Amino acid sequence: MIMSAVSPVRHLTVFTALLVSILQVSNSSQAAHRCFCQVTGSLDDCACDVETIDAFNNDHLFPKLQKLLESDYFRFYKVNLNKPCPFWTDNSYCGLKDCAVQPCSPNDVPEGLKSSSHYYKYSAEANTQQDDCEKLELLGAVDASLSEETREAVLNWNLHDDESERFCVIDDVESPDAQYVDLLLNPERYTGYKGPEAWQIWNSIYEENCFKPYTVQRPVYPQAFHSGQGKDGGRAFYRWLEGQCVEKRAFYRLISGLHASINIHLSARYLMDDKWFQKKWSHNISEFQQRFDADLTENEGPKRLRNLYFLYLIELRALAKALPFFQHSSFQLYTGQPRQDQEHQELLLEILQLADTFPLHFNETSLFAGDEKEAAKLKEDIRLSFKNISRIMDCVGCFKCRLWGKLQTQGLGTALKILFSRRQIEDLTKPRVSRPTFQLSRQEIVSIFNAFGRISTSVKELKNFRSMLADVR
């Protein structure tokens, strides 16, 4: 009798525990779903899908790329972090210790990178300079009656042509304010830089450089620093965006994808424990949800994650297209360490050849394919807008954020330069081309590989966050 009296209670306890377990699994599943509900299937304006990119990046490309980026050629980046903001006069800088950048001492940088003769070996300037005999031959072929100034101008035309093809501002590495930074010792992570100053940067990028009329309100999250924007959940904005040409849609999605990637990095390397004797940087699931959960961002977060994959496709395609440049005899990866240089150049080519095998590349020929004059004007408008965005990076108050912002916008700008230099790159494959017209400076090379390394890391981190959200209780 005692057994039969207790049995219903036990059954109720077991049922309650089972119900709680089911609810926990359901809630964890919903947490992952709310962030990744749209991060699947085919991407807009592309023949590719999310799953193909995940498998290619996480299983094949990511490990090789990370190894390359740890090499001396790619870890040391020369940058001027002291350029004044060209757009507003508020030069308030972040006083947080985690915003600081530690530049290299002269002894830290390999001699091959510091030597001007070897450094310029990889720059556009070096590859367009001829020795004295070649200069005399070229000048004589032009016109022996030209003044000395005019002759020098003729010799430097190709330098100006290269500048006209750039989509971003490149720092003057000969400036006394330019310093080498070890990217491995100054990693991109959460610094605490936020608030109105950080908001002003992204607001200037989106509102003034993405071709959006001020009358169209974009969805903006987090909500703290805007008034009355995106109250309709972004429906009017996306109706406007879908009505734009494919080039302007692509431009917006690149910026949005870059923004998403940066937010993933900050969430994945968040300061979780700050003791005087130890700091712990780790994944912050709550921070990730605040930025990408569909319910918390009125469905904007998952759209941004999809745009990350679009950005991945663009930079992957650019690297694949640049393969002839890196295979050409005029390029030699050089730090002054012959054995390591040879090993890393072989790894670089292996990565580019792997990128070239990707089965569903973005087709850049679909861009700027209309009327020739209109297409040329549109391309120039987009080039100047992105160049403007690269200048905005000099307004970032956090020096570490400025460092990585400059590097990643320069990397994306270099990718765009490659994509729209089809004829010059095709010339590289022709015989007897000793001095190709298409050039990349060392700054551009370091920036595009590191920028793509950041995007590749973001895709990898999404797998980690998806797994962690599935375990949320």
Structure, explained:
α14 (300-321) packs across α16 (338-356). This protein has 473 residues and is mainly alpha-helical. Strands 1-2 form a two-stranded antiparallel ribbon. Strands 3-4 form a two-stranded antiparallel sheet. It is built from 20 helices and four strands. The two termini are 39 Å apart. The relative contact order is 0.18.
List keywords for this structure.
473 residues, mainly alpha, two-stranded antiparallel sheet, two-stranded antiparallel ribbon, disordered N terminus
Quick summary:
The chain is mainly alpha-helical and 473 residues long. Helices cover 58% and strands 4% of the residues.
Give the overall shape, derived from the CA principal axes.
Answer: globular
The portion of residues assigned to helices is 55-70%
Question: Rg to the nearest angstrom?
Answer: 25 Å
Question: What number is the mean pLDDT?
Answer: 83
- Unreliable residue stretches: 1-6, 17-26, 117-146, 150-161, 224-230
The computed structural class is mainly alpha
The count of helical stretches stands at: 20
Question: What is the terminal separation in angstroms?
Answer: 39 Å
Q: Major sheet, described briefly?
A: 2 strands, antiparallel
Question: What is the N-to-C succession of helices and strands?
Answer: HHHEHHHHHHEHHHEEHHHHHHHH
Note the beta-strand portion: under 5%
Write down how many β-strands occur, each being a DSSP E stretch of 2 or more residues: 4
Can you list the strand order of the major beta sheet? 1-2
List the helices and strands and how they pair.
Layout (H helix, E strand, L loop, with lengths): L1 H35 L13 H20 L2 H4 E5 L30 H4 L1 H4 L4 H5 L3 H11 L5 H8 L1 H9 L12 E5 L13 H14 L25 H8 L3 H23 L1 E6 L2 E5 L2 H8 L7 H22 L1 H5 L10 H19 L15 H21 L6 H21 L2 H6 L14 H29 L3
Antiparallel strand pairs: 1-2, 3-4
